[in-house]
Amino acid sequence: MHYPWWYVPALTAPLLIAIVAVLHVLVSHYAVGGGLFLAVEVGYAYRTGNRDLLAYLRRHAWFFVLLTVVYGAITGVGIWWTIGLASPLPTELLIHTFVFGWAMEYVFFVIEIAAAFIFYYYWGRLDPHTHQIVGWLYAASAWISLVLITAITGFMLNPGSWIAQGGFWRGFFNPQFVPQVLARTGGALLLASLYVYLHAAVKAPPGLRNLLGARSARPALLGAVLIMAGGVLWYIFLPASAQVALAAASTLNILMLLIFALTAIVFVMLYLGPYRNPGWVTTGFAILFFVLGTAAFTTGEYIREAVRKPYVVYNAVMSNGIYPAEVPRLRAGGYLDGGVWTKAYVAGRYPQLLDPAGRIDRSRFGALPEEDQIRLGRVLFQYHCNACHAVAGYSGIRELARGWTPQMLRDVVEHPERVRFFMPPWAGTPEEAGLLVTYLESIAPPAPPGMRYDGTPEKGR
Amino acid sequence: MAPQNLIGPAGPLGYPAPFWFIELFKVLGFTLHQVPMHLWYAGIPLVALLGLARGERPRRLRARLITAMPIVIAVGINLGIVPLLFTQVAYYRTFYPAGILMAWPWFAVIILLTLAYYGVYLAAVGVRSGWRPRLGAVAIWIAAVLLVGIGFLFANAFSLMTHVAGWPAIAGRTDAAGAVTGLALNTADPTLLPRWLMLFGLALLTAAAYIGLDTAFLAGRETAGYHAFASRTAAVVGTVGLAIFAVMGWWYIFGRLDRAILDASARVPTVRIFFALAAGLPALTWALLVLQRRGIARTGAVAAALVQFLALGANAIARQWVQNSELAPYLDVTAEPVMMQWSPLVLFLVLFVLGLGIVGWMIAKVVAVNRREAAPG
User: pLDDT at position B131, please?
Assistant: First the structure.
């Protein structure tokens, strides 16, 4: 509304954020946990004089640099790219609230990059003491950048007292801060171990593999415990509507069950496998482990995104790019007239709808041919609904509205928040609701054939 | 559709710091970002071309450049965060719409950059360890094409950010029921091509200055013949760079830039000075490189690099002035209220200094190692 809407067929633009975000977190957590792993293990190898372990760690560091500094860094910037395209208003709010948080994170990025390259490229050239310090500098700065970015993602889910009082630090230390830092730190430890198992299974000789398996099991187990503890606190400090959404949305309660089940399975496998029987870490075992772990991560990220609905930033910006405070104004004056790009569209295509003051006169909608009413209804759909519903595809409205009567459509359009509390309220006039209903009627197919509840045979049989 | 009606309202939060501070960090960040960005932008096509040349000396220069590139790209991406961040703070009302109008090409930058970066790594590994050198040679050509293409996309996005007059046509052409398909570029903007190519010329000069520095300071183990070849190459690359910069710059300033902006710039003495520096300093870089084409000295290399860095700074300042002037008919970016965030700002500055100290300490250790290894015996 404030910005043009990017129409992405089948997927919806915000789904691209989720895709890029998931692709990023699977590596960014390893960038944190893997840094700790390398710092700890290099220290251990130097202390014990284990040259084989040092040689392996050097190979692992190369893999680590190649994956985290290239792919991890670009997809991290890629999330920014994508949120600016698919969710510009929430991005605007986040940037203006946390620009210095991001700037601080940037400082730690610079330290990370410098440390990562020096740690790897000067391996065997720096004295062991300096080499270890550089490793720890990397690990510490990577973890601090996790803390900084987690504060911002926590803020999106529950800004706490920031809504009423504003201020950087109130937003930063939001109710979700501690739970998410715990869970993400745990995730980093656990995921890094899974990467280590995967890499070691392919690249390390059996004896070393067992050593690495056993030594990486403890941080991984600790990680699983932190995820569980953080997860419980995350639930406790969720806004009430998000807690209810977890129970009410069937997809979400299945996914919640799945994430706890996957984490529990990984925990048991860690205990029975690398911790008690390091020899179990074969290539197949490591791949299975990795798949289960990344499945749990992906599920967690999906849930984190989904429970915020109908907001992107809770109580601050709604998923369709409107401030909650704008709803009464748009209901009174009209959504098409209130939106920068919708107004420009109508003014350009339908100048006959403008009154002498240049405002859109909604009483003139009825005089438009039906085809134009449908087109304006589609404009409303794009800006009001397309953030969560494709026409056909992701959460496709065509199939959702299949078989609905005009009255049902009207009820849902005028009071979406009553039908599903996690949908944003209608932010237009009754006349505009009529346009949207006309559009939905034009695309909604009839109920599927063959369903008979009254015992009568289907026509034609 | 009147273009000025397509700019949304100001956000409710205001600026978190005075406009001059945001602008300062945007310009400073862009100046710093330009250094590594120019190195890969012009340096990787140069590496690809050197692969076609026969002989040991081009091979050595190619190897020296390509092995530095993975680090250069990482640093460049990192240094790009600051200007992007502060652009979004002060220019959000035009930056986001411009990005959305060309959403797919802009989104594609993520994928193209990832592919280009891995291509560079493949080539670097091929040169360093001899692993699949032919694959590396192909990869570097692909990376070069991708990076020049990414430069074109950036030129599109940032010119579209200020080319508000072009928005209605793009929105109309890519309309999807009031939304946009995001399948557009800013090719109707007459300033696009000269801006893009002018920057490429400047990038060649930066790459030439880097070759000078590398030859003078880091190539101690190379032969005298190599030093002569590299010095000559720096002069040749600098000459080509200056020629492109001068022709495209002339075309841009006197052929494509809005006359009113040019006239206004002539009336403000400081702006005039920065325009003159942005245009003149690259010529000085070139002169320094050409004068040392038979063998670059350390002092001369530092002088060329320093002058080129100042040229990039002057270019960033002049560019900022043009950007604000282009936007002026539609938007006054200085007009938003300031809701000062003192403690986060101070903490950021403290961490910034601390971070520089830590990075400086690490670099000092690396320099000490290099010196120790280079010492005889």
Answer: 83
Number of domains within chain B: 1
Q: Does ipTM come in above 0.85? A: yes
What residues form DSSP beta bridges with B157? none
Predicted confidence (pLDDT) per residue in A148-181, tens digit: 999 999 999 999 999 999 999 999 999 999 999 9
The closest CB to that of A4, out of B97, B363, B369, belongs to B97
Torsion angle, alpha carbons of A382, A388, A389, A395, to 10: 170
Q: Which residue range is the domain that position B83 belongs to? A: 16-333
pLDDT at B346 over 90: yes
Best of A2, A5, A6, A442 to substitute, by most chain B Cβ atoms within 10 angstroms, is A6
Residue B237 lies in a domain: yes
Phi, psi of B176, rounded to the nearest 5 degrees: -135, 80
Biggest alpha carbon–alpha carbon distance for chain A: 87
Which amino acid makes up residue A37? F
Q: Which chain A positions have a beta carbon within 8 Å of B107's beta carbon?
A: 16, 81-82, 85
pLDDT at A457: 62
Please answer yes or no on whether B16 and A96 come within 8 Å at the CB atom: yes
Kindly state the tokens that stand for A223: 């990680």
Helix H or strand E encompassing B99: helix B92-101
Q: How confident is the model at residue A223 (pLDDT cuts 50, 70, 90)?
A: very high
- With beta carbons under 8 A apart, name residues in chain B contacting A168: 16, 341, 343-344
Q: What whole-number distance in Å separates Cα of residue B168 and Cα of residue B2?
A: 7
Q: What is the CATH number of the domain that holds B58?
A: 1.20.1630
Assess if residue B344 is contained within a domain: no
Rounded to the nearest 10°, the torsion over CA B198, B204, B208, B209 is 50
Say what the pLDDT of residue A305 is.
82
Find residues 19-78 of chain A whose CB sits inside 8 Å of chain B: 20, 66, 69-71, 73-75, 77-78
Quickly list DSSP for A396-460. Answer: -HHHHTTT--HHHHHHHHH-HHHH-TTSPPP-S-HHHHHHHHHHHHHHPPPPPTT--SSSPPPTT
B304 domain residue, yes or no: yes
Q: Is residue B276 part of a domain?
A: yes
